[in-house]
Amino acid sequence: MARIQPLRVALLGAICWLSTLGTGCATDSQAEYIVPGATHLRVEQVELRGVEAFSEGDVKSGLATRKDPGWRAALPWLPIIGADRSYYNEFSWDRDQERILNFYRSRGYFSAQIVSRSEVESADGNSIRLRATIDEGEPTRIASIEVEGLDPTSNLSARDLLNELPLKEGQVFTEKDYLTTRDALGRRLREAGYAYATASGRAFVDPEDHRADVFFFIDAGPITRFGEVHIFGLENVEERFVRQAITLKPGERYDPQRLNQTQEDIYDLGVFGLVTVLPAHEAREVTLEEQEERQRLENLLEESDIPSEADPEADVQIPPQPGLDALNPDTPDQQPPDDEDTEEALAGPLGISSLLESAQLEAERRSRLDPEVPVVVRLKEAKEYSVRVGAGLAVESTRQDVRGLLNWSARNFLGGLRRLDHFNAAGYAWAPGLISNDELVNRGAILSSDLRFSQPQFLERLTNLRLRAQIDRDVREGFSVWNPALRVSLDRAVPFFRRLRFELSYNIAYYNYFNVEESLVDVSTTTLGLDFQTKFVLESLEQSLILDLRNDVLDPTRGALVSLNVQQANDFIFGGKFDFVKSELSAEGYIPTPLLGRSVLALRSRLGTIYDVGEETGVPIQSRLYSGGGDGMRSFGRQRLSLYTPTGEAVPVGGLTRLEFSVEPRVRLVPNLFSIGDVWGAIFLDSATIMRGQLYLDTAANDQGTLQLADLPPSLLYGLGAGVWWNTPVGPVRLDFAYTLSDTTEDPRFRRCTDPSAQGTSECVFVPVDQDAIQDLIEGYGFYLSIGHSF
């Protein structure tokens, strides 16, 4: 038999090879799994007819069957553009019919039906065209909304609780609005001091009469106060620091907003990766990893006599009833029974009367709960040390650079909540840029090393100490610079209004300019008040008052940010060479709007001026005011909206007064692309001006004149642009393009005179545009690839 075995194997192999000409041959371990219902037919088209109440794209978005991407399938590896083939699966298409009906039912169209469907294969047998025809029917509207269970002795009323909530009589009933209203009722009760409050409800839908009757039962429980605060999860951080960040006190009226604020305050300590602050009866659902902590929480709940039922609605379920569809989001869809049984169902053992009776019994039991609510703070400490390595690319129309990055952080450094961060970058820069039409003026290595230390709760709970030491080597149009600097600052949130913050800092920096364009040190440029120095020390005191009402720092969609900053430069300790006062008021606003789906109207304005109060020092070039670039007027290059040197190479040298406005409607284009984040787009209008003189006030050292506020609007320049960005875990990755609408060829700020000494005067005679070095720099457009928004 041993001699025959090889022959049998060879014969079996030959049979399998021959069979590949037909159906194929494979062992069980080699057989490829075939999805039930799958075919080789590419989906050429998915057509939905009869869709009127909604967009066809919205209905299709929930379907498993998708149109084949065509040529994009040849590039499946390419992000955003690439895609996989879409093949027809008959089982998925069958289930899609139910998905279509569920889409309509969840939006109030309970009588919607699929009246016909077709599947047509192409003549070559490689593709298929799919079609479904929908009869949407009439929408179901809300006939009545009832609220029961409110304590008549309280100040709450059904009208107040339902005010400005999405569920209203007469409008189309949707499951989303129903659930939102139900949850909001419970939330409003808790905000009124009822920590144990819940709101249960049922929506009885009659598809034939196109009406829905909505019923809510309010279980407020007792009015409550904060109890003892229990902290879990500490390992290396001392508990006293967490206690200092907690402002709520036992005995105070219960307020869930205070819990949210406490959670933010603990996060702000900077040493925790996870923070939850919850009343004890809600903290039961939080997973506790340590057995000892789990037992502590269970003991706390038992001592407080907190009920174990997380959802009091679980005892009140409504099954399918004659004449009604009892909408319960926790149970499968139910079919409407006969109309003649409607009245009996409502009065029956599981109808409204039974629901009321069960809910009232539960409310009576819960009314005996302890009015003092324990608070559970659950913490997970962040990693003490972290290191990140990466690369960066900055692309602007006037400057580009590439860089490598090495950053490391130490949390709770040497204990006491201290934090130490070190950010390092090294690379190469081109200014005005490799892709600019201008002749390359400057290029070279760039370096940045930034060491930051912070001490929260410095001396007292709300004050933070911050130290920052950095050294930079940078390349700009007209010069390169070495710049070591030190900053020492204290910031403090205002008690009772944590959104308002005051900051005081001392700054010292040394500047060493090299590769300097000759026109910057030419004595003829003193008419601009530059008095350029290649080496000097700059000392300043700076005060800032910041009101931050934004909902998100990186990508705000509502709220506002207002700041006032005042900087005084002088010789304080180490021989500062300049004496001036610089002030700026800025404001940003973000207004959600219902236009075009999800959208936000973003607004920004800035007004700043510098007062030269020194005898002969002037204002250094890096402290003067500019606009242009990704954080200014985007149709100008970085710092190119500026005054310029009147001779030699055109170098932007800033001004003493700046005014900026920006309007940017933002619209979400694609939700959650590749499950990473939303894709947004925007159009924007920027306007800005840079002026020579000081605003309103004159000083003895000022040789640039003064301005009135009314002088600024006529000098504004305007730019129009568009941008698109993708919200990613590292922030919005954004691409912008902007074009200057204003004519700069007749603006004396951007033209050179045949006589340089006449620059900025009425006696100036412009050189021809094609010979003007300033006009060569003002390209009239700008583009930017960046992480983060302009504002």
Automatic annotation (TrEMBL):
InterPro entries: Bac_surfAg_D15, BamA/TamA_POTRA, D15-like, POTRA. Residues 303-314 have a biased composition (Acidic residues). Residues 303-345 are annotated as: Disordered. Residues 41-137 form the POTRA domain. One of its GO terms (cellular component) is outer membrane. Residues 1-26 form the signal peptide. Keywords: Membrane, Signal, Transmembrane, Transmembrane beta strand. Pfam families: Omp85, POTRA. This is POTRA domain-containing protein.
